[in-house]
Task: structure prediction
Amino acid sequence: MTQPRAFAHIDTWVFDLDNTLYPHHVNLWQQVDARIGEFVCNWLNVTPAEARNIQKDYYRRFGTTMRGMMTLHGVRADDYLAYVHKIDHSPLEPNPALGAAIAKLPGRKLILTNGSVDHVDAVLARLGLSSHFDGVFDIIAAEFEPKPAAQTYRKFLDLHAVDATRAAMFEDLARNLTVPHQLGMTTVLVVPDGTKDVVREDWELEGRDAAHVDHVTEDLAGFLAGLSR
Result:
């Protein structure tokens, strides 16, 4: 059996944002999810139930609902992003333990997200993590081609001059770790801790035993702190 990749050589730490830097059970993404459904419903003039089916179909097929709406229905990204990210961030609470663990990691810390920089800024401010990251690669930098598209990861690596073989990627969706692992990154899947209800599709919680997942954790702060000991 192949041994999972380790961390001693890592000099760049790459983090997804939603459901990765904050716990799944906060269900912040549930708000965004609801806003996406409203946007699809209004734009296509369909029932909420029809909009829900379209939303989830596009999410699976295109990586984000936005990409499907742009490709098939001519939606402007700016309009979509402004609408769906207009949410209440107050459920997020400062996480000094996570901040301390990130600060101790050697090298650069970057965010790679299918969200927008504005959403990243709002989330990091609530978590008290704004000063801990050296850069953000968002859906706009990706030219609206979301993870898990291979060209998006390559564009990220090129833009930030990241050596994939010396980088680690932290994600809540196993499918978004397939390409990073192929490129040589050490991969970590962040999963719910099981103590509270989470609003996720079944497929979003799959993949813990996948060959492209090197490590799994339900406690990101504790996991990172353990790497610095």
The longest strand covers residues 108-112. The radius of gyration is 17 Å. Strands lie at 12-15, 108-112, 135-137, 167-171, 186-190, 215-217. The chain is about 40% helix and 10% strand.
